Amino acid sequence: MTSLVDLGSRAVDLQAHYTDAGILPRAMLAPSLWPHFWSGSGLWQGALFAVAALASIALILGWKSRWMAGIVALLLWSLHARNPQVLFAADPLLRWLMLLATLLPLGGAWNVDGRPPRSLQGLPAAIPLALLMALYGVGGLLKSGAWHSGEAVAMALRIQHYAGPMAPWLLDHPQLCEGLTWFTLAAELATPLLLLIPRWRLRVGLVAFWILTHGAFSLGLRVGIFPLVAWSAWLLLLPAQLFGKELLGQRPGPLNLGISAALLLVLALTNLHSLGWTHTPRIEAALHTVRLSQHWNMYAPQPMNREGWLLLQGQFAERPDTELFSGRHWSLDKPQDLSQHYGGMRWRKAIRAQMVDPTNRYREPMVIWACQHWSQVLPKDPPTHINMVWVFEASGPPERVTQVLPVGGMDCPPN
User: How confident is the model at residue 183, as a pLDDT?
Assistant: First the structure.
């Protein structure tokens, strides 16, 4: 189900994010054998989305679960390679979960094949446990600064790119924000230790705690599908005793054992490197290449204390200058809802890639995409020139514009 929701959230920006007419043409990336690199057309990308969606539905139904999980995992890896600009913390977690789905007997819980339910024993069953221990434990250990002074949650809520509906109310209660800072840090650091205790009722309580906590956090912070992916990971840990069932154990085969041992080793190496406890740059580079590295540094070492927004100033022959992300009259003023100004989490990550790129090599594709998009919206009066402007602001309090930075412009190519 999670992979299906992920595909749906991406599909609305298929043309902009995954075709050669979008913000990151294939020519700007290293050549690759992944299926999403075989063609830059919207038709091909849409066909791959459809295949992944059908495989996800088959996985939900429990039909040929392991094969369907393999197809979904393959296309997910390919999709992430196609546009790394739009990835965020939910994506590596989802990649690992789909890899696990090829090892775990997911069809044993619910399937249309008529197979009896089974549970997996041994090393494969340890991987989701180790993955969650790393996610929360490493994430907690990497936090410092404002997390240790009680200010981190308030700082995170002031970043309006990610502010949720409850953020203003929470910011009006600074003592509550301070308490939530200590609560978050303590919960992350305690979770790996609690996961080691072999008591099924404690395990159920921990699953319920994090499902509720992620749901509550999403009211204050917009973090895309991360809560849904985290819920999926936690649900893997629900014990059979909760449902009053004793499932037949399924011992993993030699290949499954070998892959599981390798993945556990990868988990250890990449997270120890992330913490700085080991120095294995070549191994980490190799793991990054195959997209198995992990860096659970969300809001670590502390949230940002300033944010910026990108404005596209469209110039037209007849109509007044227009800000092209919002469609409103041109102004340097902060957009009314900065969290939705670009259209969602993946657009925000793509814009951030523009901000941190010192070479400005991604600027031209962004402008060309905006020219083509608005030429379709306004075929009788398409934009003739587009300027890119960054506005940076301290995240408060008090809020103030600290810098207005024009980064150049381009004439739009003729239709």
Answer: 97
